[in-house]
Structure formats: C-alpha cells, structure tokens
C-alpha cells in the first residue's frame, strides 16, 4: 500500500525515548477521543435520546419487514439498474471518445464534460418534474426512472473517462501488434485494447459503484422510497428520527465498506490479466472528484 | 425556437432571482470548504503521525464518513441535530438551516480533503523524508519544513476536485430545506412548465460556469506549482 509507505518514511523506528513519549501521546489521544465520545453520550442521555423506547422499535420485525428492508431493496434496485445502464452508456461514450472521426470524438467529449459538471440532483429533479408533466412514464415508476436517468448520465460519463484513460494507459505495443496482425483500428479497439482497459480499470469501476450506491440516497429528495426515505418515515412515526437515521447510515456504511474491500482485492488480482496498470483511484479528471458523489 | 419563446424565457428572470439562488450555493461552498480544509488538514496530519492511536482515529473517521451518503448526513443534521436535539446556530430560521447544511457538507468533505492531502504526501519522494531525517529533523520539523510544503503542491489537483464536488454537492442542501439553486429550479418548473428545457439548461450551464473555471485554475496551478524533480 502506498499509504503505508508514506507513513513509514516520515519517521524512524522509534527509540526508547520516543517510545515512552508515544505511550503518553497514545494515552492522551485516547483520552481525547473517548472523552468526546463520552461527552456526546452524556449530552444525548441528558436529552433522553438513549432511552430504550427510542431504540427498541428499530430492532423489531415491523421496522425491518415494513421499512428498512423494502427501502434497502429499492436502493439496491435503483443502484443495480443504474450500474448496468451507466456501464452501457459509458462504453458507448468511451468508444466514441476514442473514435477515428473527429466529429464523434468532439460530440462525445462535450456530452461527457457536460454531464460531469452538472449536479446529479439537478438532473434527477428535472427528469422527475419533466417526465411527470410529459406523462410518458407510469406515475408509480416515475421516481425510480428519474433516479436511474440521473445516475446513468453522470456515472456513464465517469465510466467513459475510465475507458478512455484505461486505453491510453496501455502500452503502445498492444495496438501496434493488433494492427500488425491485420486488424483494423476499430477491431483493435474492440478486441484488444478496450477489454484490457476495462480489466485494468476494474478497481476504479468498483469504487465508482460505491458512489452510485451513495447517490441513490438523493432519490429521497424526489420521493423515491429508498432506504433514507424509509428511515425518515419510520422515524417520523415513532419520534426517533435521529436513531432511525443512525441505523440507515450503518447499513450504508457496511455495504459500502464491503464494496471498497472488493475494490482493493480486485486491484491486487487483476494486475496479471492486462498490459495496463491496475489502479484503485479513478484517474485524474479535470471535472470530477472521483469518490465524492 | 421563435421570438415568442425567447421572450417567455427572458421573462423568467423578472419573476425569479436565479443569481441569488446560485449565490446561496457559492456561500455554502465557501463556508463548508473553509471548515472542511481545516478539519481535513488536521485529519491528514493525524493519519501520517507516528502515534498509532491518532492514525487509527483519523482513518476511522474517514472510513465512516466516506461510506455514508451525503444526503443522509444533511438530513441527520437538520432532522436529527435540530429537529430532535434542538441544536441551533442562529435565531433566524433560514440562517439556522444554512449553517446546519454547512456543518453536514464540511463534515463530509473533510474526509475527502484528508484523502487529497494524503495523496499529496504520496507524491513526495522517499529521499526527501530520508534527507530530512538524516539532517536530524524530528517528525514535526520534517513534516512542517520538508514534507507538507511539497505535499500541498502535489495535492492542488485533488483538492481542486474536492472543491468541484463540493460546488455540485451544495445542491444536496435542498434536503435540509435550504433555498438554493436546485430548489429554485424545481419551483420554476412548477410555475413555468412552458419553458422547462430552457430552465434546466440555464441551471445546468450555471453549474458548468462555476465548475469549469475551478478545474482550469487548479490544473494550471498544479502545473505551475509542481515541484521540479
């Protein structure tokens, strides 16, 4: 891990004096962290927020069967559809940006830059209200369609950039060898370069999945009944919004943490199956923050 | 597109104050950005420090916050901190929501500022740290005099990306009842559905106008400040 390397060179292996000082620093910082935690708990307790009757309803069959699990199902449904549609769009736009025709390159480049700069929420609100007025979508499915469209356009653009920078990250010999075998440029892209680029980018794609899953929570703003919305409804009904949101946050954290670990494992595995270099971090993009969704 | 459509589009701006809505997003970005920079720098120093407990505390914060959706954090700030715990920042209703949203945005983006600075530390060659130690500098001195000045330069591009994300994410303050651009867009579409596409593209290009200069500026700054090696 590069992080571990950076840490280890910043200071020597501690000698006896530093070790003694480190003990004190450890004690002091533990006291501070535990102190902040205790202070928060005491404050919460003083306001009666730790009472069992606020927490107990969250661990009943009713809470999970009627609120959290259906909400989680909707979250995963929206994320799952968006991952597939964004993948297809990203592949198309990415191939477009690598096209031999300058017109196609420019158009695809413009589309990618535009959708990367526009907030996902803005797109979701627009599709929700716009498609609602146009009466082209079943009103019951409208929030889902708006969430999926917003996520698809944004993440499709991110995937397009990943495909493009993955192809650029391959050694030149790959294309030269393909052309020498008599493949045309398009065939070389489709059969040789893009498959290797996608494998090299798998870790970055996996960490983008975390972004997609997190961004489904934006759907709560346009009445999509996902996990956050379910937690709000449950909390409003039982007067324990704070506790209910904590449970929703824990569910999100657990799923996303597992996804992040998968991305790390993938980064270690895929290296041998591509001529490109595997990266967990999305490449440096002009208009994107990689993970912050 | 005829003259009538353009006239109806122009009349939007007499009816609604689009610039004021964007100004709220800019204020959210600046306030949350400053707090996130301070908090994120503190977290980054903790994560590279020799004390294992500080490293653990820093990385736990980043792991927890980075994996929580921003919408959940902002709803938590408004409905949890204010609605249930009664924490207020201002007697004025709207100002209070504004600062609660700033708190949520800052807490969330501090984790990404920390990661950006850490990736900046990773751009500093090992030899720099070894040389600093060889001339007898301790951790604090070598971090302050040798590592961090170079790390900040290397972190300009990732920090710019965090700022861009913050501009876009300031729309999520709508989940905390802050009247900002995405909320105004929804309101305008409700009242003026006749020019719905024009409304969307107005707001979309507003964000493009905010975001693209930041991208260009950080790219050129990071090139100019790059450490010659």
From TrEMBL, chain A:
It is found in: Cell membrane. The keyword Ribosomal protein does not apply. This is Glutamate ABC transporter permease. It is a multi-pass membrane protein. The chain crosses the membrane at residues 21-42, 76-95, 107-130, 142-163, 197-221, 241-259. InterPro entries: AA_ABC_transptr_permease_3TM, ArtM/GltK/GlnP/TcyL/YhdX-like, MetI-like, MetI-like_sf. GO terms for biological process: amino acid transport. The keyword Transport applies.
TrEMBL record, chain B:
One of its GO terms (molecular function) is transmembrane transporter activity. Residues 22-218 form the ABC transmembrane type-1 domain. The chain crosses the membrane at residues 20-46, 67-85, 97-117, 195-216. Keywords: Amino-acid transport, Cell membrane, Membrane, Transmembrane, Transmembrane helix, Transport. GO terms for cellular component: ATP-binding cassette (ABC) transporter complex. GO terms for biological process: amino acid transport. InterPro entries: AA_ABC_transptr_permease_3TM, ArtM/GltK/GlnP/TcyL/YhdX-like, MetI-like, MetI-like_sf. CDD domains: TM_PBP2. It is a multi-pass membrane protein. It is found in: Cell membrane. Its main location: membrane. Pfam families: BPD_transp_1. Belongs to the binding-protein-dependent transport system permease family. HisMQ subfamily. This is ABC transporter permease. It comes from Cellulomonas composti. The lineage of its organism: Bacteria, Bacillati, Actinomycetota, Actinomycetes, Micrococcales. The gene is gluC.
């Amino acid at each position: 891990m590069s992080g571990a390397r950076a840490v280890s060179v910043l200071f020597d292996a501690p000698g006896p004096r530093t070790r003694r000082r480190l003990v004190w620093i450890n004690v002091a910082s533990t006291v501070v962290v535990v102190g902040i935690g205790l202070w928060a708990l005491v404050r919460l307790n003083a306001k009666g927020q730790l009472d069992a009757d606020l927490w107990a309803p969250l661990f009943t069959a009713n809470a999970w069967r009627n609120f959290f699990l259906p909400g989680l199902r909707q979250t995963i449904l929206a994320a799952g559809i968006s991952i597939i549609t964004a993948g297809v769009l990203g592949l198309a736009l990415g191939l477009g940006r690598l096209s031999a025709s300058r017109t196609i390159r420019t158009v695809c480049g413009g589309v990618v830059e535009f959708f990367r700069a526009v907030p996902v929420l803005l797109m979701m609100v627009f599709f929700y209200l716009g498609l609602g007025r146009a009466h082209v979508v079943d009103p019951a499915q409208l929030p889902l369609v708006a969430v999926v469209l917003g996520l698809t356009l944004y993440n499709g653009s991110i995937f397009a950039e990943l495909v493009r920078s993955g192809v650029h990250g391959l050694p030149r010999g790959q294309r030269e060898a393909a052309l020498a075998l008599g493949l045309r440029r398009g065939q070389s892209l489709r059969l040789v370069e893009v498959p290797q680029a996608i494998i090299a980018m798998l870790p970055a794609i996996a960490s983008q999945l975390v972004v997609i899953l997190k961004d489904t929570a934006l759907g709560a703003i346009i009445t999509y009944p996902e996990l956050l919305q379910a937690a709000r409804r449950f909390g409003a009904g039982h007067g324990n919004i704070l506790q209910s949101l904590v449970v929703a946050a824990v569910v999100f954290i657990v799923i996303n943490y597992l996804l992040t670990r998968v991305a790390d494992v993938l980064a270690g595995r895929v290296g041998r199956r591509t001529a490109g270099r595997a990266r967990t971090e999305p490449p440096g993009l002009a208009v994107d923050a990689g993970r912050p969704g | 597109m005829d003259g009538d459509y353009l006239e109806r589009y122009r009349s939007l701006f007499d009816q609604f104050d689009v610039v004021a809505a964007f100004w709220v997003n800019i204020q959210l970005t600046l306030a949350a950005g400053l707090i996130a920079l301070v908090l994120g720098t503190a977290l980054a120093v903790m994560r590279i420090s020799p004390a294992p407990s500080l490293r653990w505390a820093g990385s736990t914060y980043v792991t927890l916050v980075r994996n929580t959706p921003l919408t959940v954090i902002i709803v938590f700030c408004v409905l949890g901190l204010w609605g249930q715990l009664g924490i207020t920042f201002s007697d004025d209703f709207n100002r209070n929501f504004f600062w609660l949203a700033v708190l949520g945005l800052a807490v969330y983006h501090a984790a990404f500022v920390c990661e950006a600075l850490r990736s900046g530390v990773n751009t500093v060659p090992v030899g720099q740290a070894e040389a600093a130690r060889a001339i007898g500098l301790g951790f604090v001195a070598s971090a302050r005099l040798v590592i961090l000045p170079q790390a900040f330069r290397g972190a300009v591009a990732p920090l710019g990306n965090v700022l861009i994300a913050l501009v876009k994410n300031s729309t999520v303050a709508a989940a905390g009842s802050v009247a900002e651009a995405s909320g105004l867009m929804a309101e305008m579409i409700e009242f003026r559905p006749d020019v719905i596409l024009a409304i969307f593209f107005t707001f979309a290009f507003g964000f493009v106008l905010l975001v693209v200069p930041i991208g260009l500026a950080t790219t050129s700054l990071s090139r100019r400040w790059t450490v010659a090696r």
